[in-house]
Specification:
Blueprint: H1 2-21, E1 29-32, E2 38-45, E3 53-58, H2 61-72, E4 89-96, E5 105-114, E6 117-125, E7 139-145, E8 150-155
Parallel strand pairs: 6-8
Antiparallel strand pairs: 1-2, 2-7, 3-4, 4-7, 5-6
Length: 157
């Protein structure tokens, strides 16, 4: 019985480790939403280690490196920090805070530009069906064309 328990713990730990190591999607992927405005997904990850739920407007390469520093604090090798031209791109990080399961995600519903203001409407999606049973700290990082003086982030329920 004791050997069976140890075996099951080893299998469970291996599974969680494998899933968490492959949870990072850091390649840039373009998406398009209402009003034909597009955005690029820079990072989509389940283990950011940012425990509070917060949306960050990242204005410098150093700010971006700080976000990736938290993400990479327990990873060897870490996820490379992308080089962004902040004169051309506006970057936003949606940290979803600590969650009890995997499967949480951000969906960008629309990006609306009116005059000098751009509004990003987003929705936090909860897991549907079966989800990884582990403590997660999801993060979703996007960039959009930097064509506004002011950005408004609006969570859609």
């Amino acid at each position: 019985m004791k050997k069976y328990f140890i075996y099951m713990m080893a299998v469970g730990l291996t599974t969680v480790t494998t899933i968490s190591c492959k949870s990072t999607r850091s390649q840039t992927k373009s998406e398009q939403v209402e009003n034909n405005l597009s955005y690029n997904v820079i990072l989509d990850d389940q283990l950011s280690l940012i425990k509070e739920q917060k949306v960050y407007q990242i204005k410098t390469q150093n700010d971006l490196a700080n976000i990736y520093g938290k993400l990479n604090s327990t990873r060897k090798p870490g996820v490379p920090v992308p080089k962004i031209d902040f004169d051309k791109k506006a970057v936003f990080a949606f940290a979803l805070g600590q969650r009890n399961t995997g499967g949480y995600h951000v969906e960008i519903k629309s990006i609306e530009k009116k005059g000098d203001e751009t509004t990003i409407n987003y929705k936090i999606l909860e897991p549907s069906g079966m989800a990884m049973q582990a403590i997660t700290t999801p993060i979703y990082v996007i960039d959009i064309e930097n064509s506004s003086k002011k950005y408004k982030l609006n969570e859609v329920k």
